[in-house]
Amino acid sequence: MFARIFTLLALSMAAMVSGLPASTVTGGSCNTGTLECCKSVQSPTSSPIQTLLGLLNIPIGSVTAQV
């Protein structure tokens, strides 16, 4: 009895899995068009950066990297 239930379960699982569509992963490509870049960076403790971050309500915390 248990062998029949197990066989039925195994066959139904195999049928269910074989019916799923295969997902294909293609190589990604990025087309950003004209890429723009900032030509200068500043210290996060400089006055203009502090003003800008304050107006935007962005907490800078203990970041020491250039922004």
From TrEMBL:
The keyword Membrane does not apply. GO terms for molecular function: structural constituent of cell wall. InterPro entries: Class_I_Hydrophobin. Pfam families: Hydrophobin (PF01185). Residues 1-19 form the signal peptide. Keywords: Cell wall, Disulfide bond, Glycoprotein, Secreted, Signal. One of its GO terms (cellular component) is fungal-type cell wall. Its main location: secreted. PROSITE patterns: PROKAR_LIPOPROTEIN (PS51257). It is found in: Secreted, Cell wall. The keyword Amino-acid biosynthesis does not apply. Belongs to the fungal hydrophobin family. Self-assembles to form functional amyloid fibrils called rodlets. Self-assembly into fibrillar rodlets occurs spontaneously at hydrophobic:hydrophilic interfaces and the rodlets further associate laterally to form amphipathic monolayers. This is Hydrophobin. The lineage of its organism: Eukaryota, Fungi, Dikarya, Basidiomycota, Agaricomycotina.
